Amino acid sequence: MKRQNVRTLSLVVCTFTYLLIGAAVFDALESKEEERRDGLLKVSSNALKRKYNISEEDYRMIELVIIEYKPHKAGPQWKFAGAFYFATVVLAMIGYGHSTPVTSGGKAFCIGYAVVGIPLGLVMFQSIGERLNKFASIVIRQIKKQLSCQKVEATEMNLMFATGMLSSIIITTGAAVFSRYEGWTYFDSFYYCFVTLTTIGFGDYVALQNDNALIERPGYVALSLVFILFGLAVVAASINLLVLRFMTMNAEEIRREDQDLQSSSHHVLTLDGDVMAVNGKLMTGQHGLIGEIDQTSVCSCNCLGLGHAGENEELLLDGGGNYHYHPSHPEVKVKRASV
């Protein structure tokens, strides 16, 4: 099996193993808390129904009103500021789900907009990531020159370290900002920044959804958009390095296989013709008579080299009586040498 196939199979097995481990850990961490919260909500809902004498139908209507009203807490979601924020989320493939189009026209336009915008966004972020890597390599080279290092060129590890540090700075700084403006704990803000910049976008934490922020705080809206766009560009720079590393490994594997193939080609025999190459030696055959002939073995069992056909050999002749056939090696046809 080729090395590339082995690596692909190994990646598939490792990924599914990782999924199984993740499922087991999340089950252990979250399932009991889920059951506890579900029980508390049922107790609270039953208490409200008894206290205010609410019927089951009315209670469901209240639930629906609360769920539908939640996106409107931040003010109008589809004015220009909110629509621009939604378009950014679509382009970046974050998909919080905090607001969604409800009209058929809006849904149809969202599909077409995403079909064009997502590839455009990916190319843009990738291009910005390449420029950031180029800038980082220049900075690293200058730093190494100042430190009088023997090798001043930026290596892949240097670039990965630089983009990793920049990503960490962006996430930690963004967490501090969102913690202040949204009233979240720092850990929850850090969680939001990580989920956003990795485009997971669960939607359990979404910025700009309180106190009519989309209308009343344009500066905060701009800051949130800059965080998303610049943060995604930095993440794209890191991904660009990983992709390049994988492509380099793949190219090395292909080159190694080509070299192995070329080295083994010296042992390949050209058997169906007037010229036969055995280990680089050319042998020219000519028409001869059936009888005592000199033959050169090309089989691993050394079945040839006889002066005549043996008991386990069958001699098949073409029109000129030129070829020898061995039943255990049907693929081998040997041109008889000159008598």
From TrEMBL:
Keywords, ordered alphabetically: Ion channel, Ion transport, Membrane, Potassium, Potassium channel, Potassium transport, Transmembrane, Transmembrane helix, Transport
Coiled-coil region(s): none
GO cellular component terms given for this protein: plasma membrane
InterPro entries: 2pore_dom_K_chnl, 2pore_dom_K_chnl_TASK, K_chnl_dom
TM segment ranges: 78-96, 108-128, 159-178, 190-208, 220-246
Gene Ontology molecular function, alphabetical: outward rectifier potassium channel activity; potassium ion leak channel activity
Keyword Repeat in record: no
Membrane topology: Multi-pass membrane protein
Entry annotated with the keyword Ion transport: yes
Family to which this protein belongs: Belongs to the two pore domain potassium channel (TC 1.A.1.8) family.
Name of protein: Potassium channel domain-containing protein
Organism whose genome encodes this protein: Phaedon cochleariae
